[in-house]
Design a protein that fits this description.
- This protein is α/β, with parallel strands linked by helices.
- Helices cover about 45% and strands about 25% of the residues.
- Mean pLDDT is about 85; it is low at about 1-10.
Length: about 220
């Protein structure tokens, strides 16, 4: 466990002890509530880490190079998961902690069937079936981006390097913000439908067969 995390947990423990002692003496319900709010503030603190700056720093220097090195063609991953889901996941899946499901770092050059930017969970529908063979694979374009596939695919992201679970969650949140602002910000229905796109990204293994890719790169054919 990191030094920062230990200090954060100790501070939280001290506040809870104070609350426990005080509540047995003279504090009013309002005062108790205020002290509990202070405890929550400690739990939610991020130790001053500039998460936006952190993601900006690692994006080009570490995140993209790791994806470039590890990305597997999407068609190959889908075929492997169809043939031997558990075996393929164990061999080619990636995760940076024991609590997250397996993820796959993928790349592809695929024709676009549909683009939906009206829904909060916007998506690019690809002309390739997901693992179930019943639905199309999709790329998430937000603004709502589900799951934490990018964060949980990265070998250099370690839960123990962060103060607490909330700060760890902020890593994924800021990655999604970066993607919205820098990767999918110019996507519209008009400039993609019927064209081929080249992409890199990751998706979380779904036993139902859904392939929901979070992109770190998208480029459109130049025609």
């Amino acid at each position: 466990m990191s030094k920062n995390k230990v200090l954060g947990l100790l501070a939280l423990l001290v506040i809870f002890v104070v609350v426990a002692v005080a509540t047995s003496v003279t504090l009013s319900p309002q005062e108790i509530a205020e002290m509990k709010n202070k405890a929550r503030a400690v739990a939610n603190s991020d130790d001053g880490k500039d998460m936006k700056g952190y993601i900006a720093d690692i994006w080009s220097s570490k995140l993209v190079p790791e994806f470039d090195a590890k990305a597997i063609p999407i068609q190959q991953v889908i075929a492997g998961l169809k043939e031997d889901p558990d075996g393929y996941a164990q061999k080619h899946g990636v995760r940076n902690n024991d609590f997250s499901p397996m993820n796959f770092i993928v790349k592809g050059k695929v024709k676009v069937k549909e683009v939906n930017t009206k829904s909060k969970a916007g998506k690019i529908v690809l002309d390739i079936k997901d693992v179930s063979g019943k639905k199309d694979a999709v790329i998430q374009i937000g603004p709502v981006i589900q799951k934490s596939a990018i964060r949980d695919s990265l070998s250099f992201i370690d839960f123990n390097d962060f103060v607490n679970q909330i700060e760890f969650a902020k890593v994924s949140k800021e990655i999604k913000n970066y993607i919205r602002q820098n990767v999918v910000n110019n996507i519209t229905e008009n400039n993609l439908v019927g064209k081929e796109i080249e992409f890199e990204g990751a998706f979380t293994y779904d036993k139902g067969g859904k392939v929901l890719i979070t992109p770190i790169k998208i480029s459109v054919e130049d025609k």
